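Sanity check

After download, print the first record. It should look like this:
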Amino acid sequence: MAKIRTRYVCQKCGSSSSRWFGRCTGCEAWNSCVEETEPVSSPNGASPTLTGDSPRPITEIDGNPEERVTTGIAELDRTLGGGIVPGGAVLVGGDPGIGKSTLLLQGVGQLALAGLKVLYVSAEESAAQVKMRSHRVGALSENLFLVSESNLHQICSHIHQVNPVAVVIDSAQTIFHPDLTSAPGSVSQVRECAARLVNLAKTSGTTLFLVGHVTKEGTVAGPKVLEHLVDTVLYLEGDRHGLYRILRAAKNRFGSTNEIGVFHMGENGMVEVANPSQAFLSERSSETKGNVAVCSIEGTRPILAEIQALVTQTSFGYPQRVATGFDGRRMAILIAVLEKRCGLNLGSQDVFINVAGGLRTGEPSVDLGAALAMVSSFRDRPISGGTLAIGEVGLGGEIRPVAQAGRRVMEAHKLGFNRCLLAKPNLVDLNVPSQMDVVGVANIEVAQDVALNGG
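Expected structure tokens:
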């Protein structure tokens, strides 16, 4: 019989030790140690029998481009890189109630309606509950197979029996391997179950979707190796009580990680937002002080958004600096530049910055818009609603050029903007419509004068 080995495993990072510990040496988490047992085969002198492919020259290996299958949901296909790849493994994470299960049920439902076999494995809900949701989102089809199961052996058996094009496991933290003594959701269970499922997907050519819970830090619960096992990691972001949801790729072996998909939660499930720029600017007031329109490139498309700033006298000894959807460290740099180069006394002011619509952007091209929004709020003077600000702000107050300026200007023109502030180097060989007034600015001092005075 195989011997039993006892290990003590951290449930936060997955590091193990032969002795109990109160504080993990890997992630320094307290009281995360759990005792786990696993069988150990007795060593012998015989070498194991090796099976599998033998090494071959890379020139002899078939390198045909992967064939993708579109789900019928354009925003999901865009984030995946053009569709699902046979044999690929996708991990979808997000806060509870954000819409992960709904989005994946709609995706596999569209595949089933197209005549492809798909399997939905629910380890958290009963089959009747999932059917109620599928009826609401319009995913009822004879090609959509549904089972409520959490045993890994049974799940693998169902996959072999149905032989689906895609399978959804909802969720990775609730399934368990019966040969392991640890509880479902533990590090060893999540790691072992995910590895078995990914290996099954690779050998059978079935696309695997794993739903992952997230921690309070916003990362997928379980060991970090879970993200390394899969090919694609998607995060569904947004306020669960808000209107819009942002699907963003954190890792993608088959496409770009810069693409995003935009949805809004409706009565019939997740609805695609075909024109995110128009959606994010739909509630914009043209004469509100502290509001400036910006444009960022997300993957292959420009997206316009509105940056809102509020600068007000602080009531505390230490002023507050709060940023939502914007990098807080970048905001601190812009505040320092405005104080040094423009003479704004922000040391006694609370500063709040928000990207409207729940969008999160970290592109340097929105620096100028954020800086002008703070200037507008501090000076209590509005910036014209038809003005778009594009540019990176350097530490010396200079406005640096950004990539794809022409595409940004054209997108702004389509949505009715008539003036754009750009870095002067971007004006070279820039083709703009005759109705668009493009102004080149060299530094932040000139930019604030042009934005507030129209000069």
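If your output differs, re-run the checksum step. Summary of this record's structure: The chain has three domains: 3-40, 68-273, 279-453.
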